[in-house]
Amino acid sequence: MASLKQLKTQFLEYIEIEKGRSQKTVENYDHYLNRFLNFIKTDNPENINDANIREFRLWLNRQPGVHRATSRETLTRKTQNYYLISIRAFLKYLARQDVKSMPAERIELAKVSERPLDLITGEELSRLLSSPKNSDIKDLRDKAILELLFSTGLRVSELCSLPRDIDLNSDELSIRGKGGKIRVVFISEEAKTAVKKYLATRKDMSEALFVAIPNQKDRNKKVEDLTHLNKRSVERIVKEHAIKAGISKKVTPHVIRHMFATDLLSNGADIRSVQAMLGHANIGTTQIYTHVTDKHLRDVHKKYHGKNKTR
């Protein structure tokens, strides 16, 4: 019988090849499972049981969070659940391979309290989108980034991977999202105009849609050497324009994604359609936005309830 370490390696190869998980996801699963296997100190899958799962959960719950080695704060419940999700996926794989071990369904995830959404007001969003005002290539690029994020609800990683040759004559754009899944997003006229103006100023040969603009020190850099923007760079661009727009809240590309979803729902879109446009595999993930539909229901109740009652 194969050892747990050998089975773990086979599992990681399975999720990379058959399931199409990204390299980063595979690395995360490897990290979580390594900590678990090192903790239980066994190489026999039959020795995974309720008792050592419980001991591992207690140990996890007492571990310091990232960069908190001198603090009393421990790993968040959400982070602890990442470990449990990895273990459950591994156990399901073992079951499919007819390897005797603990049933995956015996592991319950920790309850996580709902996190309040990071949102800005509609007026703040308008100021943010209007922040890049100049006609230089940097502001034109930043304007295109902001408009495209709000128009499509793209994840920042999806935005960074866009090619330069996207079809701006179409209102639709096919995106490869998490797990390699393809979905369609839609580009507004404002976003198309902003991207066209930005591309008209590009003189480089890079195939990436969004590239780093050289500063004064790098003006001699060859145009073909321009690199595509990474997630951190886009986050800095959004933060810079939020400050310029006078927004005191923390604004990230994900906040704009939140605004995309709440804008659709508050204007009458159904949650299943929003789920598809966001690329959520589970409707439960999209349901964090139900506060918007709840407000709509309150408004309907206030407007229509009890109008025929005589006082």
UniProtKB/TrEMBL annotation:
Parts of the chain that traverse the membrane: none
Listed GO biological process terms: DNA integration; DNA recombination
Signal sequence range: none
Keyword annotations from UniProtKB, A to Z: DNA integration, DNA recombination, DNA-binding
Molecular-function GO term, any one: DNA binding
Residues of the Core-binding (CB) domain: 2-95
Residues annotated as domain Tyr recombinase: 115-302
PROSITE patterns recorded: CB, TYR_RECOMBINASE
InterPro entries membership: CB, DNA_brk_join_enz, Integrase-like_cat_sf, Integrase_catalytic, Integrase_recombinase_N, Integrase_SAM-like_N, Tyrosine_recombinase_XerCD
Family recorded in the similarity comment: Belongs to the 'phage' integrase family.
UniProt cross-references to PANTHER family, sorted A to Z: INTEGRASE_RECOMBINASE PROTEIN MJ0367-RELATED, PHAGE INTEGRASE-RELATED
Name under which the protein is recorded: Tyrosine recombinase XerC
Native species: Candidatus Nomurabacteria bacterium RIFCSPLOWO2_01_FULL_36_16
